[in-house]
Amino acid sequence: KSSWFGFSIIINPNSKLKRDKIIKLLADKNIECRPIFSGNFTRNDVIKYFDYKIMGKLENANLVHKNGFLVGNHHIDITEQLLHLKNVITY
């Protein structure tokens, strides 16, 4: 199942795969992707404009921030594009 706007992919931190290399591979194969919106928001420069308090180490937020990305979805049938994505990431 997916959300209406995209497929979230998070690379296992124990994997030999690296997000930057996968993103480059996807771009080379004409597959657009973006960082996952949430990630660790406290690592963005804009945080200096907010009054906030950090509770804990934000381990999961850091995992998503470092290893996550999003491939877009659509309201129309994108079966062909999904098969292309599958072929690229499983070759």
Q: Can you characterise this structure?
A:
- By secondary structure, the chain is α+β, with helices and mostly antiparallel strands.
- The chain contains three helices and three strands.
- Strands 1-3-2 form a three-stranded antiparallel beta sheet.
- The longest helix is centred in the last third of the chain and has 11 residues, at 79-89.
- The radius of gyration is 15 Å and the shape is globular.
- The two termini are 22 Å apart.
- The mean pLDDT is 90.
Q: What is the subunit arrangement here?
A: single chain
State the low-pLDDT regions, or none: none
Strand order of the largest sheet: 1-3-2
Overall shape: it is globular
| Termini gap | 22 Å
Strand content: 5-15%
Helix content: 25-40%
> Number of DSSP helices?
3
> Kindly state the mean pLDDT as a whole number?
90
Spell out the helices and strands N to C: EHEHEH
Record the SSE blueprint:
Blueprint: E1 6-10, H1 19-28, E2 33-34, H2 59-67, E3 68-72, H3 79-89
Keywords:
alpha+beta; three-stranded antiparallel sheet; 3 helices
Brief digest:
The protein is an alpha+beta fold. The chain has helices at about 20-30, 60-65, 80-90; strands at about 5-10, 35, 70.
